[in-house]
Amino acid sequence: MKLSKRKEKILKAVVESNLSSGEPISSKAIQQEYLPDVSSATIRNELMSLEEMGYLTHLHTSSGRVPTTEGYRKYVQELMPTKKLTKKEVSQIQSNFTDKLVSLNDIMVRSAKTISDACNYASVVYFGAKDTATILQIKIMTISDSTKLVVVATDLGVISEMANLGEVSQTELDEAGRIMTEIFAGKPLSSLEDQRYRISKELVKYKQIFETIIDTIAKRDNTKIAVAGKEKIMDYPEFEDVNKLKNAIKLLDNDEKLLPILKNSSSGDGVEISISVGGANDDLSIVTATYKIKGDKTFSTGVVGPVRMDYAKAISVLKEVSDTIKDITDKE
Amino acid sequence: MKLSKRKEKILKAVVESNLSSGEPISSKAIQQEYLPDVSSATIRNELMSLEEMGYLTHLHTSSGRVPTTEGYRKYVQELMPTKKLTKKEVSQIQSNFTDKLVSLNDIMVRSAKTISDACNYASVVYFGAKDTATILQIKIMTISDSTKLVVVATDLGVISEMANLGEVSQTELDEAGRIMTEIFAGKPLSSLEDQRYRISKELVKYKQIFETIIDTIAKRDNTKIAVAGKEKIMDYPEFEDVNKLKNAIKLLDNDEKLLPILKNSSSGDGVEISISVGGANDDLSIVTATYKIKGDKTFSTGVVGPVRMDYAKAISVLKEVSDTIKDITDKE
DNA sequence: GTTAGCAGTCTAAATGCAAGAGTGCTAAAA
DNA sequence: TTTTAGCACTCTTGCATTTAGACTGCTAAC
Fold it and tell me: Please, what are the domains in chain A?
């Protein structure tokens, strides 16, 4: 439904006022600060109408208006001005990616840190590409009698993990690596898990080695999400409430909870905003930007902050970071 | 100063009551629950005396007594009963270390998780041994044209990290690895940093490679402390206060703040208790256990919880974990 | 369609009161 | 000298009441 110009102005005023102060706003204040040309009574009428539409709400009879989640959504979708980052901010972001990133983990961790620093909220990075990264080569190296190092090189970076394979000669390890490379080269990383059954049946000789390697890589993959800047959101006034703070931290510390939210909101390509995510976490918003790199590999970045956060800035930062990552990974 | 038997009993009663309830205790309650043989008036006199000595305090005229930090200290040092872990608890702890640990990181992370789970507080692990681990071998492997994998094997486990060394042949890498092994084998890990100047001067040919490797390993080493179970302490009632909660989380999220506390309290060998650590963090206690493994390498484990925590249990858990780690590392 | 004006509602802060908890002191008992 | 009973005193906590102030919603006039 299309709002009248004046209703748009008023909704915008309510949201922006709430964004900066966190307090409800009265009809009189709207008149004084945003719309001096009409009377507060007229604004009151409009407010009532916007409230009926579900964009605003009322805490009690004599309190000013605050936007509903719906109101926020309308704002970010239709009314919000875009914000351009300053040159300084852009170069600040880019400077975090000047040295070459060699492991998948590096990219995630670095991105998360960069985003969080740039917009002063917490940030999450989900590198969906991790599952679909294309395997290039698998090597196993001898470290000590029983400890071996498994290295999986992919088109997006390298994963290396120690594994305890027992006493196996380097010759055998080389062969095992060669065979695994033959089977998996060109396939996505996730195929390691998927084809576990087939492999262990087909290649009886190295069954034990394969299984250990698959377990090791799979285990390593458990930390799927990089989170940065948790401490940053603690200072926003909405988290003066202990329970809200606890909820926020528990969410950010828990990959299992975070993942569905991230995956869900990043269904489309591009920027998506989820306001009031999670049942108990009414006070958290997540702005996500999902991009494809190297063709079809998803890369989701997100800013996690209070519902009244600077959405415009968050979006700009995410776009900048995503573009930078894209540049890096596609260049190679 | 030695306390009379009765004063000891009363101090013990106040501390233990406070430990379990978190509330101040009155003279009458002490009489009923701990010392039925004397009147509450007598207890009141003793309480006054203990207060003068600095072990107890008073929130206001008509409130019961709570222990001071000094009182807690006296308690844990002289009055606390030792607590034996149940068989179940012991095997629970040991079961976390059954599969072989191959990297230094593994040991830290696993220990932290185990401790936190066993006593339901947050835990920190500082593997001082990391700096002094003896280097056994250094290898550099080719992953792609420019990306190489640096592997440093030590007596305590392996460190592997990706580095961008540019286009160098495997032959050269082998030689560089061989030379570095020759120089560093038998020396502590920290010598990599320490001898940076000497090396880069002595071995001009591989200077670039050496420096990159040293940087890489040093960078990796930045995360010196493993922290686990942050979310566990959030549910203790003392952290209903937002600021206390914030302080606790900020401390646990900040290695730079944590390290001096850990290093400091683990100056001696064995168990140490720091109550009310950090200026603003009056409500956190850290119980640390520091041990030497493989001769002279320090390994500090710690339990971080509210001041009124189950110290006896924490100590037992730390001892058990430390013993287990010692077994593992010394066996090899 | 817009506005002024006002009654009505709700909050938030201040005030006062009563009940209860626990101490500190005194004087008597052991 | 130590212990105890008893009581006055202090402070907290919870509750009810009041008051001032902030806004709205409605009505009637512009």
Answer: 5-79 (1.10.10.10), 87-129+225-331 (3.30.450.40), 135-220 (3.30.390.60)
- Which residue on chain B is closest to A143 by alpha carbon? B153
Whether the CB of A39 is less than 7 Å away from nucleic strand C comes out as: yes
Supply the pTM of this predicted model: 0.82
Residue with tokens 């985003």: A115
Q: How far is A118 from chain B (nearest CA, A)?
A: 19
- CA distance linking residue B196 with residue A299, whole number of Å: 38
B243 touches chain A (CB under 8 A): no
Going by their DSSP bridges, the two strands A122-126 and B297-306 should be labelled as unpaired
Q: What pLDDT digit, counting tens, does each position of A266-292 carry?
A: 566 677 788 876 555 567 888 888 888
C-beta neighbour count of A156 within 10 angstroms: 24
**Which of B151, B231, B245 is the closest to A149 by Cβ?**
B151
Dump pLDDT digits (tens) for A21-76: 889 999 999 999 999 999 999 999 999 999 999 999 988 888 999 999 899 989 98
CA distance B311 to B108: 22
pLDDT at B269 over 70: no
d(CA A47, CA B281): 46
Of A146, A158, A245, the CB nearest to B245: A245
A251 → chain B, closest CA residue: B231
